[in-house]
Design a protein that fits this description.
6 helices; mainly alpha; 132 residues
Length: 132
């Protein structure tokens, strides 16, 4: 006969949770998360560069983001100058058409003036835009 005293019930024990190491409780001061989407090739390149640098992935990204030199595509002033150059290029095309139809002497003076104006606008573009 099985009685409660004969029945062996295993004693349930609960493992105590380990405390976090002291360094884990310090606040890092970093409270913002930046996410980036990469394709497979880009991701593999980043992983390889990270491995070569010997840093953790988060440290690698942080270092890359904070130390990268970013060049602006174009300032608003540059864009205005580029629009002017574009309209002048259109004028040049129209003058070239006239020159082909009526002869070059009729449009020579206009071409020289337009050329000087384009050169002066180009010199006003920012250094970064002219050298990229």
């Amino acid at each position: 006969m099985v009685t409660m005293s004969n029945l062996k019930i295993p004693k349930m024990t609960f493992a105590k949770r380990k405390k976090a190491p002291p360094r884990a409780t310090k606040k890092s001061g970093k409270s913002y998360v930046v996410s980036v989407r990469l394709d497979e090739e880009q991701y593999q390149t980043v992983q390889e560069n990270c491995r070569k640098s010997g840093r953790k992935l988060s440290d690698y990204w942080r270092h890359a983001l904070l130390n990268a030199k970013v060049t602006a595509i174009a300032t608003p002033e540059d864009m205005a100058i580029l629009r002017q150059i574009g309209s002048m290029a259109n004028n040049l095309n129209q003058l070239a058409k006239k020159a082909n139809e009526a002869g070059f002497k009729l449009v020579e003076w206009t071409l020289k003036g337009l050329s000087k104006e384009i050169k002066s606008l180009y010199s006003r573009l920012s250094y970064d835009w002219r050298h990229n």
